[in-house]
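User: Can you predict the 3D structure for this chain?
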Amino acid sequence: MPAQKKKSKKDSSKNMFITAFAALFLGALAVITYLSMQNRDLTSMRNALSEPAETLQEGVSQEMFTFGEKTLVVHDTPPVTVTIYTSAACTDCEAEIAALSTKVNNAVPTAQTSVASITPEEARNLGVAFVPAVVFDQAVTATSFYKNGADFFSATEDGLSFQIDTGALGHTPKAFMYGPAGTEGFTTTETSATQTKELHAFLSTDCDQCKTMYDVLSLIATRNKNVNIIYHFADTREESEHTATAALACAAQNNKELTYRNQLFARQAAWKAVDDKNAAFTNYALGQGLDKAAFTQCLGSEVTQTMITAQNNLFTTFGVNAVPTLFIEGVSAPLVGVQTVAQIEAALQ
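Assistant: Here is the predicted structure, written as structure tokens:
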């Protein structure tokens, strides 16, 4: 069964994002020649130039001038340094890198794009889990490209740059530099001496296939005591607007995530069928012995949002563009889509 793709909130944003790419690409084709202003005195050049033409791309270019047989475009955004990372493990990445470079340069005309090879250690330090990966410096935050698609960016480990979700550009990881072993979900997990492998499940709360996968993983946990299963949820993968992911984060803050998560998936069909889903989540919290006022306040708290953002970023870091997706420690590529008990146990060997 194929994996369930992003829908609704993020899917509509993704469609708008891709449409914007197409518009930017067509706009770029309209420019006859682009001459860089670097190392030139812009003030003196403007004195010799004709009157400015209309803006080519809203939020991207401010003015267009003619200078002899050249067409010069003055952009309202600063130069943006972009690095496309690859590695020795990415043996067939050339075409992918070329396509990514073209899309980036069309979307951000001031991009200064380069390609760099990265080692697994360097990748882990930076927070780049797969290649090819596209990383922008902080200047990207001043561009309309970033402002229109902020949900598709996550800060790297050093906090000085931003990695884009290449799935939003129509690309999937070619090779993984490392897996999510050691990363946490909403709850800090204690690994027992008998648990020698980690399995990381990337799910969404309202995905039908994720419910199926959750039931399978419950059997895996029962049958394989050596496996520590860590769950990751992103509100950007939810099919509609509701607070299920926030509710899980609040349950985790009260040491109730496991029981709350079990209830959330056991009753998924019921709460998906009602209009006021958030009321159902509050009722589940009351059933877990949580205070209604405190729980309601928790849903919108800064602590909860920080927890959710951290999980959203993990989805970007590990190139998760479909749910469910499983990462098994020691297995080089993730398992995407619903897996059977037999398939997972074979991968665990």
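Residues 197-348 form a domain with the Glutaredoxin fold (CATH 3.40.30.10). The two ends are 23 Å apart (CA to CA).
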